[in-house]
Amino acid sequence: MSRTRRPTLEAVAARAGVSRATVSRVVNGQPTVTPEIRAQVMRAIEELGYIPNSAARSLVTKRTDSYALVASEPPSRVFSDDPLFSIVIRTVSVELEAADKQVVLMLASSPRSHARIERYIAGGHVDGVMLISMHAADPLPAAILRVGVPVVSYGRPAVNVEMPYADNDNVGGARRAVEHLLATGRRRIATIAGPPDMIAGQDRLTGYREALRGSGRRSIVAVGDFTRESGAVAMRQLLEDDPQLDAVFAANDLMAIGALQALRRAGRRVPDDVAVVGFDDIEAAKYTDPPLTTVRHPVVDQATAMVRLLLTPPSERTTDRVILPTELIIRDSA
What pTM value is reported for the model? Predict the structure, then answer.
């Protein structure tokens, strides 16, 4: 069975009536071709259905047009547990596609995967790296910076390295959530904090404590890991430690949903007995029983800002840090 031959660079040159070198310059985006000749070559490419050889082109341009999105989490968390990951992945893909580039998703959940990803990046397979869900002990940021590949972070880096990042106002959002609970007369306000080795967990705990400072109320803290299960466990612990608490701020919506389930099983009415506020405003927050009051985290805007930071040359950036505002969304749970 014969196969149709793929159009060659020479065939395009013959159709356009120019040299092979001229076609190569057009394909590789070099500016040393007049607009008329460029249009002539592009017309020939379209007529023949020519597809540039990406490997050969990258040898000339020193670029792959691929960017790695590295999540420091296991597959179960990225693909099923937390809907924020799917939003970030979709947004990054759309933004890169609009720039005629592609995303390579990589999961760094073990020392072996960290080493594999470091080798891949050092091998020149991507033009830049986006990091998400970093933990304080994560070795990848420093390793990538040593390689010299451009890198940006979704969220303020959890490690002591200098890199551009896009974040949201975690401290201010958490503070407004707790101030709302105080304004509605709640007196014993607990928090289910996020992991202490993650910046979002640290900052949202800071916001909680700032809101309570000067109010005469004490901090009541349990720690989760941003999963629904950990929110339920933490809520049960809080009820055992302080049965009189009348409000809880959970550092993300998944933990808040777990808290709602634990409160229901304990016979506590929400919000009559215990008010609950979350953070992120995931889609499921609208459909909990009762609907969840939460802080809206601008995930799409934050992911978009991260991509644009990465694609903008450092000399053309107006800033290396983007901090986006959050918004308190009041529903029936508080």
Answer: 0.80
With tokens 């890198």, the residue in question is: 151
For residues 192 and 102, give the distance between their C-alpha atoms in angstroms, rounded to a whole number.
37
Residue predicted with more confidence, 168 or 158: 168
Share of the chain above pLDDT 90, in %: 58
> Could you read off the pLDDT of 243-266 as tens digits, one per residue?
999 999 999 999 999 999 999 999
pLDDT of the residue at 1: 41
Burial-class residue 181 by CB neighbours within 10 Å (0-12, 13-18, 19+).
Answer: buried
Specify whether the CB–CB gap between 10 and 49 falls below 8 A: no
Residue 191 DSSP SS3: strand
Q: Is the dihedral of CA 148, 153, 159, 163 positive or negative?
A: positive
One-character DSSP codes across 97-131: HHTT-EEEEEE--SHHHHHHHHHHHHTT--SEEEE
According to DSSP, residue 49 is labeled T
Whether 163 contacts 152, CB under 8 Å:
yes
Per-residue pLDDT reduced to its tens digit, 60-88:
445 678 999 998 887 877 777 788 999 99
The values of phi and psi at residue 295, to 5°, are -105, 125
Pairing of strands 165-168, 327-329: unpaired
Angle between helices 253-265 and 228-241 (to 10 degrees): 50
How far apart, in whole angstroms, are the C-alpha atoms of residue 36 and residue 186? 71
In 3D space, the residue among 261, 263, 269, 199 whose CA is nearest the CA of residue 227 turns out to be: 261
Quick one: pLDDT at residue 272? 96
User: How far lies 13's CA from each of 25, 31, 60, 161, 283, in Å?
Assistant: 11, 18, 18, 49, 53
Within 8 A by CB and 6+ apart from 316, the residues are none
Read off the pLDDT of residues 270-292 as tens digits, 9 standing for 90 and up: 999 999 999 999 999 999 999 99
In the chain, the domains with their CATH numbers are 9-61 (1.10.260.40), 66-163 (3.40.50.2300), 170-298 (3.40.50.2300)
